[in-house]
């Protein structure tokens, strides 16, 4: 159930030294925030009252003060450095990956 999962999530965070009240004071940067895990993590962090910044290769609209999207290519060091300087995150959760496919392969 959703309540049980939420309790488990909180227990995991507390188990590694996080307190829910402390999460509210932290600024998070989540890479890969548009993916399956990133989307759910951002929702949980926002529900806990955290300031959440997210990266995407494509342009996305920010969700008011709760979620701020940044368009960036994580393979470009100078861009990542500027991002870190501007956001100054307390916690970085790196979930991004480079997806490549070969669309011309026969099935």
Percentage beta strand = 15-25%
| Main sheet strand line-up | 3-2-1-4
- Please give the share of residues in helix: 25-40%
Radius of gyration: 16 Å
Q: What about the largest sheet?
A: 4 strands, parallel
Number of strands: 4
Mean pLDDT: 78
Tally of alpha and pi helices: 4
Q: Specify the overall morphology.
A: globular
Low-confidence stretches: 1-16
Cα(first) to Cα(last) distance is 39 Å
Order of helices and strands: HHEHEEHE
Structural class, judged by helices and strands?
alpha/beta
Please give a structural write-up.
The model is unreliable at 1-16 (pLDDT under 50). Strand 1 (27-31), helix 3 and strand 2 form a beta-alpha-beta unit. The chain has a four-stranded parallel beta sheet, covered by helices on one side. It contains four helices and four strands; from the N terminus they run ααβαββαβ. It starts with a helix and ends in a 13-residue tail after the last strand. The protein has 107 residues and is an alpha/beta fold. It is globular and about 50 Å long. The protein has helices at residues 2-15, 20-23, 36-47, 77-87; strands at residues 27-31, 51-56, 67-71, 91-94.
């Amino acid at each position: 159930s959703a309540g049980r999962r939420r309790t488990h999530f909180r227990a995991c965070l507390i188990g590694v030294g996080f307190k829910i009240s402390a999460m509210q004071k932290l600024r998070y940067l989540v890479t890969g925030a548009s993916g399956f895990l990133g989307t759910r993590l951002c929702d949980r962090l926002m529900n806990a009252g955290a300031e959440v910044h997210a990266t995407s290769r494509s342009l996305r609209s920010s969700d008011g003060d709760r979620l701020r999207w940044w368009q960036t290519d994580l393979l470009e060091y100078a861009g990542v450095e500027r991002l870190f300087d501007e956001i100054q995150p307390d916690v970085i959760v790196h979930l991004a990956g480079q997806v490549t496919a070969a669309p011309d392969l026969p099935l």
